[in-house]
Amino acid sequence: MGNDGVEQVLIEEKSYTRILTMNRPRQLNALSFQMIMELRKHFSNCEENPEVKLLIVKGKGRAFCAGGDVAAVVHSVNTGHWIQGAKFFWNEYTLNYIIATYSKPQVSILDGIVMGGGAGISVHGRFRVATENTVFAMPETALGLFPDVGASYFISRLPGFFGEFVGLTGVRLDGPEMLACGLATHFVPSLRLNALVESLTKVEISDPFAVCAIIDNLDVIDRCFSKNTVEEIISALEQEAVNNADGWIVAAISSLKQASPMSLKISLRLIREGRLQGLSQCLIMEYRVCCHILCKQASKDFFEGCRALLIDKDKNPKWEPSRLDLIDDKMVDRYFSKVDDEGWEDLKLPPRGHGRAKVEDIEKDKVASEAPIEAWSLSMAEEMLWESLVAKGKDHEEPEPAFAPADVKAGKWMENKKDDLSPSKIWVKDIPATLNLKWRVQAERLDELKNLWKEDLKKKIKIVAKD
């Protein structure tokens, strides 16, 4: 309960479903320490309650969740000890891990703003339903921070180098773009959300609308954001801008030049290293970096960014170091080392053991960490069917997709079947491997699969499910 006596997380019981509503609409449901602890309590209670089969998470007002309440974190550090800020992130990252390893399906209704910490509450869950009102971003580099809440894990697994683009520039994505790159699993028009929730609470779910559209310019993004350093990325974008008048390129360059140079360097390192690590490793790595930022031993950019954008709102942060060329590798390395402070310890995540795949098991999957994986976008009904089979004690191994072409079942890419685009057969990226989407399909010729994925997007395919 907040200082004003209002519950920051509301819980509603409907049959076998529990609906959790983040209740700070005036703050765009920004995650306070109290809200994080309330969410942890509710997730734990629902997981232990055999009467609960499904969780729905949503936000009150025009935002799902606009991120962590970092202004409050900065205040607590400035008026106390940096370890108070570290406590906030310790519990937030633990909540992210619990969600990623949760034994029951979670449906997040992303009808509005989803930024920073809001991504951690939703992307690690089983289903993310976007609408025409959805606005997604990871804007941390503009604040002198870095994309955290496990983002080094899930954005590093976006197609090609789209993760670098999203993480470094803070670009905003709409609902169809979230669906296209895999950050969302479903698209439902906002007018149908009440009907969707009603169907979910009855565990009699009809296929939602699925709209697959839109991320253009993937080739340019890959060319530029595959470079080894932030400086080379900016240079490549500037060269593209000479012959390409697309507004997004100019906007990306502007965002990169306005962001904290140190945050950009740290974020690129996190994304690149996170691509080869499991979620628990990513969260532990992010916590180390976060603690170095909070104790101000190397840079005070996070506090300066919050001052300029959130407190004084002069929008004129004074970054230090002020330029990318003033930052060497040793300065960045420091953020990834253990914190030299008495009483500090690495993030220790709780042991998790449920019917659903453990993160530790996923980390052993070399394919998940070393190569792109494509997956079928399943209808909620199909996923819930699998969950019901598990609940009845059936085998936990992944079944073959009943709707997959024979050559895909055989592990081969579907040739000459590009027109097979029914709503349950849309190819999307399996972003966090922790989602453990059932009927996961791996193609032998990954490069060919990736190229076809791009071509489908460039054609702006739009598919609408039957009512």
UniProtKB/TrEMBL annotation:
Q: What is its EC number?
A: 3.1.2.4
What's its top-level EC category? hydrolase
Stated role: Hydrolyzes 3-hydroxyisobutyryl-CoA (HIBYL-CoA), a saline catabolite. Has high activity toward isobutyryl-CoA. Could be an isobutyryl-CoA dehydrogenase that functions in valine catabolism.
Family annotation (PANTHER family):
3-HYDROXYISOBUTYRYL-COA HYDROLASE, MITOCHONDRIAL, 3-HYDROXYISOBUTYRYL-COA HYDROLASE-RELATED
**Per UniProt, what is one GO molecular function of this protein?**
3-hydroxyisobutyryl-CoA hydrolase activity
The processes (GO biological process) annotated in the record are: L-valine catabolic process
Specify the protein name: 3-hydroxyisobutyryl-CoA hydrolase
The species is Vanilla planifolia (Vanilla)
Q: Which reaction does it catalyse?
A: 3-hydroxy-2-methylpropanoyl-CoA + H2O = 3-hydroxy-2-methylpropanoate + CoA + H(+)
Give UniProt keywords alphabetically.
Answer: Hydrolase
Q: By its UniProt entry, which NCBIfam families does this protein fall under?
A: PRK05617.1
**Family classification:** Belongs to the enoyl-CoA hydratase/isomerase family.
Pathway the protein acts in: Amino-acid degradation; L-valine degradation
Instruction: Decide whether keyword Hydrolase is in the record.
Output: yes
Q: Where is the Enoyl-CoA hydratase/isomerase domain?
A: 18-336
